[in-house]
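hey team, just a heads up i'm posting the complex here instead of the shared drive bc the drive is being weird again. everything in one block, sequence lines first with there labels, then the predicted structure for the whole assembly after. its two chains so it's a bit long, scroll down
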Amino acid sequence: MGSDAPLIEVHELSRSFGGIRALDSVSFAVQSGERRAVIGPNGAGKTTLFNVLTGEIAPSGGSVRVAGDDITRLRPWQRARRGIARMYQRNELFAPLAARENVALAVSARAGPYRFVGTPSPAESAFADELLTRVGLAGREGVPARALSHGERRQLELAVALAQNPRVLLLDEPTAGMSPAETARITELIAGLDRTLTIVIVEHDMDVVFRLADRVSVLHEGRVIADGTAADVRGDTRVNEVYLGKVVVR
Amino acid sequence: MRRVLLWASATIGAATLVTFPYWTAEWESSRFATTVLRDILVFAIFALSLDLLVGRAGMPSLGHAAFFGAGAYAAGVATQRLGTDQLPLTLGAAAFVAAALALLIGTLVVRSEGIFFLMLTLAFAQIVFAIAFQWTSVTGGSNGLAGIARPFLGGIDLNPPERMYVLVSATFLAVVLLLRAVAGSPYGRVLVGIRENERRMRALGYDTARIRLSAFVLAGSIAGIAGALSAYSLRFVSAQDVGIGTSIRAFVMVLVGGAGTLAGPVIGAAVVLYVERILSSAVPVAETVLGLLFVAFVLLARQGIVGIGGAAWARMRR
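-- predicted structure starts here --
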């Protein structure tokens, strides 16, 4: 494998639901350390793409490679072990558990579940607190996830994904439902993440997309209709027709 | 200081419990009380093992009696057919057979959830019941296994009722300590994670199906130990031990007492057996009351007696 081989290679990925082609022969490649945005109107197949990348939905055709390995048939937990983490669009947290415990469960996945004696290690809790401080939840470590505000839950969702120490981070609308101040905060946080991390981000907020993304892929009706640098995509007539035009006017 | 006091009172409480038949020896009803308490503790172990699934891991099994019964039969058969009366062998056989059965059934059911898990566990337990009922040469069929000899521990004969009681209560304490350690361990937290959001746990890299299976086998083997203690205590095993009635009783104990706590299943076992053994001889409709009580708890107090007590305590302190 060459050193400039892409970290993520998606090849002719397809998936239908009933008669609807949610993904129609989607191909793209993401380099190691790249920030890639996937944009497109609602129903374009963005979340389905993430579900196929994490293994929660099986594709009807095509393949996914990460670091050269075909992971198309791996189960979600096996993909997580290979360093793929996801921030869900709709929060997937452990509602009654404290924020710290939510993060600690992600941290302790590496040590394995079959530890029947002893208490969870203080090092895990300390690392969890550190991450919570990073995402802006300092002082909220002991609050149950269900008692956090919407914005705080998004921050916690990000902390849980980061706690997995991934090499690929999939962010599904990280700023959805956040206030402008919270959006700015989380955008800067993501922008400041280590460049060893490869990030794919689905987002509707174009300011966020153009702030973060090196390259942008545009999905429309399950197909990639444009793929290029942020500037390329901004100038693409077709993209403006199906998507950007509508958003910019808003 | 507070910690020392807690440990001291727990130790005194444990010693009081284990020596119950000795310090009540003068009572007129000591024998009867010892028997009732013994049976409560047997069922408390059984209910605690079910709660590991229902309360901790969020796996509502309606077929847990399969493992209780498997343990009871294994202890009975080991004693009667294999001619061994040593406790480690017969109790070990019970735990092993129940764990093996739980591994078999668990492999087939752990990928299902909620109502489907409930129905599948019920269905497999009914198959085990049918086998127990018809495999007369081993299980005695509808006659069951009668006259099971109580075991020896080395040279100590556990046949006298007070010694039998000590065995049951000591095992009960060991199980409580074990499950308490599990609840506070990383493994216990993982089970709670699976209960609250299995999808996320998978996304974090946990092989949740296998973890659920491990909990199923652990709970099954503890249920098997409870079954063996029941076989020794009653000196009898019947197909009813594997039946749906036994599964439901344990489920009622967990829900009435309070799922997801250590005290809940124990209190639930005490309530159910009190109603069945004592109240039923005084009040003719006691069992109906138990049924209504169960419905009331499911509808009005999901947290069980422990939950109600906790809420009342919190209000008093405020």
